[in-house]
Amino acid sequence: ETYRNIVPADFLNKKVVLYTGAVNDEHCLLELVRAFDLVHDEGSALVITGIKDNEYCDRIRKVVSRTDCSNRILLLPYVTRAQMLALQANANVGVCLSREEQENVKTKMIAPNKMGEYLYKKLFILGLKSEYLKPIEMKGLAALAETSTPVEISKALRRALAAVHDAGLKQRISTFVQEDYCMQQQLKPLIYFLNERISIVKSRMVSTMMNKKVVNNFSSHHSVTVMNHIFHQRMKKTYFGRVGQQQRFGRNYRHPILS
User: Fold this and answer.
1) 10 has which bridge partners?
2) Are the CB atoms for 228 and 201 separated by under 8 Å?
3) How many CB atoms lie within 10 A of CB 31?
4) Inter-residue contact 75 to 66 (CB < 8 Å)
5) Weakest mean pLDDT among 6-15, 48-57, 166-175, 218-227
6) Which long-range contacts (CB under 8 A, 24 or more apart) does 1-7 make?
7) Containing H/E element for 93?
8) In the chain, count of helices (H) and strands (E)?
9) Spatial CA neighbour of 141 closest among 112, 166, 108
């Protein structure tokens, strides 16, 4: 009933492509609207939540008004939790077009709550090529665009809309959520990224000590041991360290690197 009160009546029999979350350039919503227009699938509809009164959202409204499919695009403000869950429960494709940047840890770990909600509701994923989404694509549960251009996103969207006809799709998504979409697995890209950063920082710290001749008072092995201890003590106090992770995941959580 909640869903019927949100969307137009003719959306009820369409394949729904859904985006829930912050609406800004980082998430390629303008490109998504243009891509949807390029697909020309009369049996599909696009729903975007989080529309506000700002320049970027005004641009989205203008683009929608100029498309040939404006009657199949629904722009909503921020919705209630109950409304969002109703939308997700009735959608077919969940959109996550966040760009990944190699030196930005935030983009390496795409909002797990968004992905978790999409997958928990058994939605096929539309996204951009990234290390984080690659395992989901390999499972046949996502269609990823090579770049963030409307043309490339439209290609991935066509694949996503075709995939939702697979009778076994929802069961495969459910199995994936139970077996793979857990914190131990989802932390792996972050752990890999942190290990790279740790190696670089350690090398620089040791190099600095050598240049300052701190090693005159220590053996080389002892110096590295001291730097390891200092580095790990600092890391444990960060958001990704023991204290930060225990605050997020519970007091008994043990960090896979720093515990």
Assistant:
1) none
2) no
3) 22
4) no
5) 218-227
6) 2/82, 2/83, 2/86, 3/86, 3/87, 3/89, 3/90, 6/76, 6/79, 6/83, 6/86, 6/87, 7/45, 7/47, 7/74, 7/87
7) strand 93-96
8) 13, 6
9) 166
Tokens representing 196? 């790279």
How many residues does this entry show for the chain?
259
Q: Is 254 left (phi over 0), alpha (psi -120 to 50) or beta?
A: beta
Rounded Cα distance between 221 and 51, Å, is 57
Question: Pick from 161, 113, 115, 149: which is nearest to 134 by CA?
Answer: 115
Distant-in-sequence, close-in-space partners of 142: CB < 8 Å, separation ≥ 6: 124, 125, 126, 127, 133, 136, 160
- For the CA atoms of 149, 155, 160, 166, the dihedral, rounded to the nearest 10 degrees, stands at -170
DSSP assigned state of 92: S
pLDDT digits (tens, 9 = 90+) for 207-249: 776 666 555 555 555 555 555 665 565 555 544 444 444 444 4
Enter the tokens of residue 21.
């979350």
In this prediction the pTM is 0.69
Look at the alpha carbons of 20, 21, 22, 27 in this order and tell me if their dihedral is positive or negative: negative
